[in-house]
Design brief:
Layout: H1 3-10, E1 39-42, E2 54-57, H2 60-67, E3 71-73, E4 77-81, E5 88-91, E6 100-104, E7 111-114, E8 120-127, E9 134-135, E10 143-151, E11 167-168, E12 177-182, E13 198-206, E14 222-229, E15 251-265, H3 266-275, E16 282-289
Parallel strand pairs: 1-3, 2-4, 4-6, 5-7, 6-8, 7-9, 8-10, 10-11, 10-12, 11-13, 12-13, 13-14, 14-15, 15-16
Length: about 290
């Protein structure tokens, strides 16, 4: 099975609409079995859908249906959608092979603490989770072959989900996605990415208005493209004022783009280019501060 096809399932959009409040529930006990109890089998989906490259979790009861199989691997991506009434996604530590993970459009999920035995995935996608505050580090995850996306998670406090990840995407790879951050308004820096060394594809930071610096990227030494772009409509709300955190960066292969960050001094962006082993193919700096550097 082509891993790239599997990943499409992770990034599929799911329609959502208004729902009535529900009594909050926890993850079923069946999802907390030990790895030694898991069976040597491939988890099967339980929804009959035309597209079957994923295991789809739409209701809390679906977690039980999956975990009762006790399979130690899944060749299909996990996609958690809506899950009305579920307060936390936990467990699943008996699974050691999973191609991708998506958590999208949840109403009540506040915390994710799961899947700590998976060492690599093609990609992860966290999108429009209105109450999600904490994603605990995936304990064994070191490589994301394709990318990671965090989009419209207004309460997400940091990026510790990727605390053990060393590489995201592939430099010069066939597919572009790398790391995407869009409109996660509680993020003020890059805390949680301290071990990331390489980001292939695009490291895209878009409309992160409360982001103040790049602190947390202590180990980052190489990216393909770095793009920090804010909307033309309201750049005065952009708080980014420092590129501190990028001191170890030595290669930007294709492009450095910083647009609409009026509190960030242009000279600091130019100093970043100067510290690289060689300049990027393209440098675009638009609407930055012309205040001098110290």
């Amino acid at each position: 099975m082509d891993k790239r096809v599997v990943l499409i399932g992770v990034f599929i959009l799911a329609a959502c609409c208004g729902v009535e409040p529900a009594e909050l529930q926890g993850t079923p006990n069946s999802c907390f079995i030990e790895g030694s109890e898991a069976l040597d089998c491939d988890m099967e989906p339980f929804y009959e859908e035309e597209f079957d490259r994923r295991i789809l979790f739409k209701e809390v009861a679906d977690l039980d249906l999956a975990c009762e199989q006790k399979c130690k691997r899944s060749s299909r991506a996990f996609e958690f959608v809506t899950l009305h009434g579920l307060e936390a996604i936990q467990g699943f530590d008996f699974i050691n092979a999973l191609p991708g993970l998506g958590v999208m459009y949840t109403y009540d999920v506040e915390e994710i603490d799961a899947l700590h035995s998976v060492e690599s995935m093609v990609g992860v996608d966290f999108r429009e989770n209105v109450k999600l505050e904490i994603i605990k580090p995936f304990a064994s995850l070191e490589v994301l072959e394709y990318g990671a996306s965090f989009e419209d998670n207004p309460r997400l406090k940091d990026l510790r989900a990727l605390a053990n990840v060393r590489q995201i995407g592939e430099i010069g790879g066939e597919y572009e996605p790398g790391l995407k951050l869009l409109n996660n308004n509680s993020l003020v820096d890059m805390t949680g990415l301290e071990r990331v060394e390489v980001i292939g594809g695009r490291f895209q930071i878009r409309d992160q208005y409360n982001l103040e610096s790049m602190r947390g990227l202590d180990s980052l030494r190489e990216v393909e493209t770095l793009a920090i772009v804010n909307s033309d409509d309201d750049p005065e709300y952009v708080k980014l004022n420092s590129l501190a955190g990028l001191e170890s960066l030595r290669r930007i292969h294709k492009a450095l783009v910083i647009q609409n960050a009026p509190n960030l001094r242009r000279c600091e962006a130019e100093a970043l280019v100067a510290q690289l082993e060689e300049p990027p193919e393209e440098v675009i700096l638009v609407n930055l501060s012309d205040e001098p550097c110290d």
